[in-house]
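User: Some background: our group keeps a shared notebook of sequences we're curious about, and every so often someone picks one and asks for a predicted structure to add to the entry. Today it's my turn. The entry only has the sequence so far, pasted here. Could you supply the structure so I can complete it?
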Amino acid sequence: MRFFLTIMLWLCITEQVNAQLQHFSHSSTTAVVPKKTSNNIKLAGAHWLTPDTIVVATQFSSDEMTLATFNAEKIEQTFPLAKCQISQSLAHKYPHLQAFQCFTVKAQTKQIKQLLKQPLIVYKQQHGDLVGTYVQTANVIDALYTSGQKDANEDNELGARLTNNGVQFKLWAPTALAINVQLFDKAKRPTSPYKLKMHEDKSTGIWSATTSHSLHEQFYRYQITLYHPSTKKIEEVITTDPYSLSLSTNSEHSQIFDLNHPSTQPRGWLTQRDNPVKNPEDNIFYETHIRDFSSHDTTLKNKNNRGKYLAFTEKNSAGMLHLKALRTAGINSIHLLPAFDIGTVDENSETVIDINNSLNDICRKSQLEEICALNTDKSQKLNEYLATLPSTSKQQQAVISALQRHDNYNWGYDPFHYTVPEGSYAINSDGVSRIVEFRTMVQTLHNLGFRVIMDVVYNHTHQAALAPTAVLDKIVPNYYQRLDPITGKIAQSTCCDNTATEHTMMEKLMIDSLVVWARDYKIDGFRFDLMGHQPKSSMLNARGAVKAVDADTYFYGEGWNFGEVANHQRFEQASQLALGGTEIGTFTDRLRDAVRGGAFNAQGQEIRKSQGIANGLATFPNELQSGDDRQRYLALADQLRIGLTGNLANYPLFTAEDTIRKGSEIPYGDQPTGYALDPADTINYVSKHDNQTLWDNNQYRIAYDLTTEQRVRMQLLSLAYPLFSQGIPFIHMGSEMLRSKGFLRDSYDYGDWFNYVDFTKRSNNYEIGLPPAEKDQQNWPTILTLRHKNAGKDVASAKDIAFSTKVFLDLVNIRMSNPLFRLTTAKQIIANVRFHNTGSKQQLGMLAMSINGNKNYPSTLVIFNNSGNRKTLNFANANDYQLHPVQQQGADNVVKESQIGTNSFSVPALTTAVFIKQ
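Assistant: Of course. Here's the predicted structure to add to the notebook entry:
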């Protein structure tokens, strides 16, 4: 029956379209396609760019080409194409298509809009057959619907909006054939009436419907009839709203809600504390995963708050007491890993698996053989069972890997709905409750003096086409996703189905979403996942829109240059080099690799071979180092010095070649080391959620004979570099507590067992079994060897963890009490930051940096001694300085052994010492 109705609907629509097209004289033939022609319509190598211009990949083009609608192996309408030269403006706008053959087509706007609702091909005659390719239409959709005045992108009321008279629904879907709103009550039962017919505004492609009935807090979905290229047939699609502001459990229904309604606001929401910063450089970001923060916290009064938003409200828990200590020291921004609605975690507590479930409960929910076949007491909890296994066992990872699709853990880089809080972090995931709980977390952090930063992922969706967690691609197929220019397949270089922020309505969705988070959730800044996959112009437009509602917002993200957009082949990317001078920050891999070692994609012994300055290169060489240590060290040391300037492109450095070279002239592989034009362009870090933790990374590389104390001091030296760099420091939660994930390289979906953070500081989670085989099996032999040869020296005690935490807090205190570490212009840095012990004859293991002061803040000198011996720096009038008061009274007794002579400083091994002028 459904198939029959679909065919009838298609015939009806085709008849209407044909009737509308009859008066266009250039629409000529209706031809029956030879049986094998459908096999000759391949890929999607044609692009309709503007109403009169189509370009075709050269392998498909010929002198005579025809545009046609193509339904059920029939050519319905044809439009002859005429060859042309692509214009300079189009070649500039679409650089990846400039080598394609250009054709002109004659059709009127109304006609083209109808054609876009059907499958389109361009074809040629070849040996009596028709040979062709499908047409990509996203660009002409933009040309028709978003390039004029009062177009779709000017509409600020998409989604479901409460009005004085009821509810208004608006959905942009220019290729749809018919749309209804399905209505449900609060229990998700169909209402009466159940369907509300929507009508299309032909000028904007926006479908709308209004109802006079009050539907506040009720639910809805869209029923869309459209041609979908993934199946090459007309589909009836049921989907939620991409502009959803509230959702049911597991995001099965969108909810009608006003975010200004009092029921969405915790008490005190409108009067909560604001925490502005004078300059972006005044930020320190502390990267926090909501579940990691409290999933194991036994000090919570309410165990139901573990792993939830509301854990942040328990002000005397171990985690919150630690955050308070961080705030007292000066850390002022909590960076939350993605907290928007994601597609990878079951939000139903009755069916999802938790690490605190018993083995019996897990078997009841999942029937997983890896657990249910275990010959052990099934009444014990999963975490209790895992703890009984040897610390070098393979069994933990096997169990956790089996649970991946069933447990309540994911980092959250899997967007489902961009503008609704994730439900799995809420105690009640249904409807408005998740909004209130999220806002309660934000309000609590604000009232403690923190800014709240949100990790956002607009570069890809979790799924596309007609997959369960696809939304955008169900509504305007092949528009919101970025396609291969020849095959038409969705690019997946980011991990998943890439979005096309270069398309106007995808950019608009991103901007509209960001404004909601900033305005309605009081989010103070945003970190963008794989930001280099988005246009620089989109990022600037987005920041401008957010600044209109929050003047001191700050944007930063991953400016990596790779994939189908690499080297600006589709547009000017928001990448490291392109963003210089914008004050949109990018993570710098230059400082990171110099400090901790590079080769982040390496395996086994190749990881160990790549020592960095802070874990022993040329000072504590491990057994894999060779005679080129000195030259490698000198090159990394110059990169690190540029990193300490905020990665400035124009900073002049006296290098190891005994010449003065700008930061941009010092190589980092085939890239410049320095690319920033302003210190706010740079995010300095040595670890974050990606790849191994700092502790694990260091253990991979540290020589076997180093003591536990030396390893802890190496950790603190590593952290000191971003803290004392110009630019903005970024700290991975728990790195100050020597956090480990048992060498796991990529813990995105490997549960609480590997991602555990112990804020009671009894354990750093190092001895938890071998990391999962999927990412790390090749590393197991290296891990087992070093664990054996380290002979326990890599195992941190509670005393070690406490010491590291206290020293870290001292370092933070020093930075945040001294604006000389937070200079705001490149000019200030170039004029006042100097390096000592440079050139070809420098002492290996010691970096020294001075910053000229003023009447308010005395000149400052920092010496990083990465070696195993006391280091002395000659420095005129050194006796005018003293060890920083924080270190004089701080937790590290070794730094107190620093000595100041008339014209020299002497610093103990593995120590960062800060001196200030008296």
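Suggested note for the entry: The CA atoms of residues 781 and 874 lie 45 Å apart. The first strand starts at residue 31 and ends at 32.
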